[in-house]
Amino acid sequence: MGKWSYIGPVEFDEKKGFEFPHPAEKMNLKETYVGKAGQKITWKQRDFVDGQINGLEDLFAPGFREMVGVYFHRTIEVDAYSEIPIGLGSDDTLTVWIDGQKIISAPGYRACTPDSNKAILKLEPGKHDLLIKVCQYSGGFAYCFNWTKPERPVAKGVAFEDVTAKVGLANTGTDVKYDSLVVQDVNGTAGLISSAAIGSSSQRRRLRKPSLTSSRKIPA
Ligand SMILES: [Ca+2]
Description:
The protein is mainly beta. The chain has one helix at residues 201-205; strands at 5-11, 32-34, 40-42, 44-45, 53-55, 68-78, 82-91, 93-98, 101-106, 117-123, 126-136, 142-147, 179-184, 192-198.
């Protein structure tokens, strides 16, 4: 998880709505934009704490703490396909995008409660852009971002691959190689149950007695 950057205040007009787009959504972190009341705004870094409610009242000058919007950005980099659960709270509205795709949209007044909205980020290996927008009506102004580290990379797609041919176990008809499969009752009550050979008919004729029949017996 990369460092947080934020930009604002941007205009928040009830008639236009909390998701009225702003050019900052392009996430060009070096760009200067026009914010509320025509002021120049730039992306700035700040150590917002994950899992805690971060008050935003002091983010902007007095007079710009109501009817404003703020964007938060961070880069998330994974080296293997990962599914990362996230939870958010906001005072007031909330919009979340991953790589430009909107995944959460929560309008209305509300107090900031952790995990009010949840999602799972499904990330291919590489870098990803997480963008959050919070619009503030009045009173309290805050947001909370929570995430859970996946225990291990999640397997995706084909879970198993038939590698029989790759490792030389396929029945090619003429190959001199042959292999056998032996199943034995290891607790010793039934002994050798069955054996099977994979190979051409000539190979099967040359099949030796499986050596596993001499396996040490394990007491029941
Ligand atoms: Ca509020």
